[in-house]
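Sample intake — Replication restart protein PriA
Collected from: Novipirellula artificiosorum
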Amino acid sequence: MLTTTCLNLSLPILGNRTMANLDPPQNPLPNDDLNRHDDPLSIPEPRKSQQAELFETEPPPWELTVQDDVATAKIVFSEAPFGPYDYRIPDEDRDRVKPGMRVRVPLGRRRQPMTGWCIETHLGQVQRSGKLRDIVEILDEEPLCDAHLVRLVSWISHYYQTPMGQVFDTLIPSSVRANAGTRERTYLTPCTGKSDEKAIDSLPKKQQVALRFLIAAGRPMTASELMVHAECTRGPISALQSKGFLEVAVRREMTTGMPMRWAQGDGEEQQTHVLSSEQTTALQRIDAAIDSGKGKTLLLHGVTGSGKTEVYIKAIEHVVRFGRGAIVMVPEISLTPQTRGRFERRFDSVAVLHSQMTPAERHFQWQRIRRGEVQVVVGPRSAVFAPLPRLGLIVIDEEHDASFKQDTQPRYHARKVAHARAMSLGVPLILGSATPSMESWHATATGHAELITMNDRINQRPMPNVELVDLRVRDDRTRGAISRQLHQAVQETLTENGQVILLLNRRGFATTIQCPSCGHVVACPDCDMPLTHHRDGGKAVCHYCDYTIATPPWCPACRYDGIRYGGLGTQKLEVEVKARFPNAKVARMDSDTMRRPGSHQRVLSSFRSGELNILLGTQMIAKGLDFPNVLLVGVINADSALHFPDFRAAERTFQLVTQVAGRTGRGDRGGRVVVQTFSPEHPAIQAASRHDYLQFANDEMVNRRKFNYPPLGSVARIIIRGIVEEVTEAVAEQLLSRLEAARLALGVEVRLLGPAPPPISKLRGKYRFHILLQATEAAILGNTIRRATDSFTIPDKDDVQYVVDIDPMDML
Ligand SMILES: Nc1ncnc2c1ncn2[C@@H]1O[C@H](COP(=O)(O)OP(=O)(O)OP(=O)(O)O)[C@@H](O)[C@H]1O
Ligand SMILES: [Zn+2]
């Protein structure tokens, strides 16, 4: 009974298939999420060596030969077979091959050598049958990852159960691997032994001029440069080259300079601030952690508008003073000109990474970072891998944000990776948020993180007053999306020349297209999800796979001429807002209007300058924006995330409402918030309306404890997908039996749920099933899954794949 409730409440497991060991584990132990103070990159139970003989079966011991003094390298690949495999390093390359470099090696019966990553080198005896194959080419002059990052790769590979080669490919951007924006240039220098006067005098005139010029220049030159300076053709230079007067060296160089188009701010001009007393205390504690030279996690819980950014900047200044650098991670959406400007104004060399960079720009920045020319790297989750040679501090702003988890392999969480990286380097990790994740909050309760609180806004500004509008009360509802109260509040704000932010977390115009006559809902053929009607161009779009058709004018099923667009998206809201407030200037911000590079910057600059009166949009507008003239925030529907089949639904709702509410009252003119909801009594919405994080966190922890959900226990998820539903399900069942066997063999308590279809049961034409695993600790889940999937292969003809998601952030 208990279990059924739990399933309906929180885990989207449907049906009542195999559910073994249903009772939640007793006496939950804190999981070791932010825990390890010993070496965080150590891997508790090393994977048994996967060195396999590719051509023969294991020979008997007496056939093994011992070879002395052989240099070998372990190589991994990003495609199957993943390795690692041993290769011999040719004698002349012994000093060149290092871990973190790419090499090309023969593999199996492939004709072309394969590119792989060196993870280890070894000099000495090898014992094996037959000859090791040789490395045929070394692709990098310098390792792309230093030894520390190679260990981080190995840790991520182990924890997230992803082959090391694939982790390398995630760590090192493809633009770097492809040398984007570079070309090879050939440089000439005079050959030292040959350039005596007598020899030169005996050369033809033009050759003499060219060679003398090169000697006088005292630096290498390309042939074309020399041709210009010595006023000659290529002939004399080629002649010098063939006579051995010139030495030739090939260098790879950037073709682009520093990209400039992002170097502008958004008009904000503030410089440094005198810290408030709360900021001062926070900074002292962070500086103490920096000075201690030990790894430590600090959670900076500061209400919206408490000035967390200034604390990060001052802490980074402290680190930079010692010649070290810092990484600051922010949600991709917050990579606004405002954030960039704040860092660029305060440091000499900042590298801002964002998704709209060209490959050449990305490569350019990466090289600068690696050469140690950058003090601060600001970027989204992938910035956790920035190769700063002297990293002194990692900051994650808005650490609760879901975008820090990657939703493709390796499904890493930047917070977890940052923690591992910081602890192994012995540097502090600062997590900042007004609404910390339950994971980080729990870490402070168990002593794994130090809590620093900032309760007040800068200049003692009050938190904005939040008014809840109950949408169930008929009087409050008007015909559209905006209630009487919200309409009035907008009107008053506009009269006072204040600005308004309206949040609606659904893009598009109408979220369902349904026939009122036969009930048919227009859905995506590949995902089975309803299509959203977009007004621009009359398109119906699948928000899961981007499948797009022209919106049908009549019902495709019964031909009824009067199909209805139901549900509310930001486009429809925009139409309503413009109709209600015809004199206001309105802009919409969602991923549809923000496609082009720089569109963020344009909208936000004109909002700051006061040109715009109303900004409406999806969660994009809920984060980090700091505009003093926003006097009103309206939330159109606070419940949109509340009824998701996910144990984090309440947490997400609380975060979203609190964050967007925090966008107002940031200037001297105060601010107010109107939140429309169908469940005003829900604890998450109640707590958000009072800005009461502690209340929320305490309530929520009680709920999590009931079912040992994270952060009190650990969860993993295996998604199985395939073209044929029955075959996919059969593979899922097979996997479940293996998991049951693994659990038994390891003697561990793991709760297994499923396989069952998740809420998105079909995606991009593939059927999906998932299995959920729960235990007190992530390590138990990791070991169980590794044991179950070790040597588990699915026949190619089945065309079924599975992915393992450790600490999943969504259950869809
Ligand atoms: N000591 C200070 N004195 C005056 N103004 C300050 C001080 N510190 C920060 N500010 C200003 O206060 C405003 C809010 O700061 P900031 O944007 O860093 O808040 P925050 O804590 O990150 O809020 P949120 O969580 O909402 O993003 C900014 O305009 C910032 O320039
Ligand atoms: Zn689709």
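Post-analysis note: Residues 1-37, 46-57 have pLDDT under 50 and may be disordered.
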